Type 1 glutamine amidotransferase domain-containing protein
Amino acid sequence: MTRRILHVVSNVAHYDDPSHPTGLWLSELTHAFDLFEEKGYEQRIVSPKGGVSPLEPRALKWPLLDASAKAWLNDAKRMALLSSTASPDEIDPGDFDAIYFTGGHAVMWDFPDSAGLQRITREIYERRGIVAAVCHGYCGLLNTKLSDGSLLVAGRKVTGFSWREEVLAGVATDMPYNAEEEMKRRGARYEKAFLPFVPNAVVDGRLVTGQNPASAKVTARRIVDLL
């Protein structure tokens, strides 16, 4: 049976300061998408509002722009997927076996309070599907509640971009909130690797999270293992 994956990307193009651009960290999408494609999975991309998903400029420069992301940039059909993403109301959660939240600082603004994304996530999870996120993508799980009113992340092991990594990246003072602390406030059992910026994925049942951009591949592999 063909598996189906729903990728989630941001519609936000800048920080609170409009002169500070941001967007999707492209390799966090491409590394997973490429792996799932190799497995023959069907894939679709959704965003909080639908339409265009801007790209994070820093991720498009050497040495962060790798072969996978570069191949997407040079493929008009692939890039078209990011200019016409689906909106949540166009998505039937019953069609998907897993949802995968990508990152980039942009998602901190539009993922947490998207009722549409919360609905899709809840329904996929409660249908025994997989909920996954990489890097800042875990912001999309902050406020998602299950049908019984409990937070999906409460009492669960998760990882995601750490505050230490925000500081080392030089952007901590520009953040709208401390995502690591917000996860802990919601009762999540936050974990991180001893060293920053190294691949790290955490699995807790059908919840799979990766810590940073370098973790996209290992996070995707964990999803494949569960499927």
